[in-house]
Amino acid sequence: MYEDYFSIDDILSTQERIRCQLLVDIPKLGFLESSLSSSLSDDKKDQKEGSNLSSLTANTKLELPYWMVYSICNCKTRFASLPELPSIYARIQRQIFDADASVVDLAKQAPHFYRQGRHLLELNFDEKRQVATTLLKTYQQRFRSIMDSAFHLVLSNDHHHHESMKQKTAKFERQEKIVLLLGQAAFRDYDRLINNETRQMLPPKIQGMTNDLTNVLAAAINRKRKR
């Protein structure tokens, strides 16, 4: 389920709420049904306390974080199902992506679109294949825009063009912004190479990212020296 237990992006993407429908009665969890409790008056709340609100009945619809939905939908005894997908992956939104994915402001609508989508595919629902296809095609359509933005932000000297590209990149979601930074670093290295400012092209380094292989090799060398 979790790609990286300590990844902030992974934690945030699994905190997104998903609507699910209970298949069985669950006692003593009535407080989770916030929609019901908020619609009742204070007098009715007092009357209902300890009775209906103390349990959740089958067919109740709840909005729960993904990590909880994953646990109750994928266990041997299924406690819930997905009656509908999050709006960003719904059929109408998928049609918008098919028409032109580059115009969608993912930073505002789904800042963890790809990561959350990959988590969603671990659940059982009827439109899984369509959602997977949308994730792939959306990335393919937007990748060219990401690379063009990386190129122009590094090499363009036109101020107005530079500002327009910044407005365009503001629509990128989290993973796309990481790819943008990688692209910018690669274009800078390439520019230095063709201008004879460096003798070799180095892998792009981004603050907060580490090269796991380098760390493993360095640790192995240090252990060997100590021996």
Automatic annotation (TrEMBL):
UniProt-listed Pfam families: PSF3_N (PF22466)
Nucleus in keyword set: yes
GO terms under cellular component: GINS complex
Signal peptide coordinates: none
The entry's keywords: DNA replication, Nucleus
Subcellular location: Nucleus
A single BP term in Gene Ontology: mitotic DNA replication initiation
InterPro entries for the chain: GINS_bundle-like_dom_sf, GINS_Psf3, GINS_Psf3_sf, PSF3_N
Span of domain DNA replication complex GINS protein PSF3 N-terminal: 6-69
Subunit-structure text: Component of the GINS complex.
Family label: Belongs to the GINS3/PSF3 family.
Protein role: The GINS complex plays an essential role in the initiation of DNA replication.
Entry protein name: DNA replication complex GINS protein PSF3
Originating species: Rotaria socialis
